[in-house]
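Technical note accompanying the year-one report. For the benefit of new consortium partners, we illustrate the data format agreed upon in the data management plan: each record pairs a sequence with a structure-token string. No post-processing was applied to the example shown here.
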Amino acid sequence: MTLLEVNKLILSRLSDFLKQLSDQDYQKQLTVFNGSSLGEHTRHIIEFYQCLIAQYSQVVVSYDLRERKQVLQQSTLAALEALAIINAGIDKLELDTPLLLEVNAHIEEDTPQQIVTNLHRELHYVLDHTIHHMALITVGVRSSFPHITLPTDFGVAPSTIRSRSSVQG
């Protein structure tokens, strides 16, 4: 399975999860998340993909330039529509595209730096980032929404799945 296909698979699992939620559950502020919601984590995932897909043709990508659209954390339908657009956009990516990643790790200063990278590497980063947030979503679901069903590997890294499989097998 290619990196493009794996990204699409993970995003389809996220879509399947969203289809089980009411907007009320999606927006609910959870204590286990220090007051953030499943919707906020989902919005965060979506916006990283949106940044990568929208900015890669400009050579410089900055995940800090997310739009932070509130509707993506309030409406499961809006999130599902955004994920469908992302899936279509993934099909058009050229993995060997060279990029500069613009980052600013400073809290008080606006001093961005650029790091040489490529689309293949950034797509892998966004995949890891997505899996990490899906793991957090799993914690939120288990703590507050026992009626929601998640696959056992939802939010689990592929290397962890392979490792668990080799230990059990």
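Partners are asked to follow this layout when depositing records. The mean pLDDT is 94.
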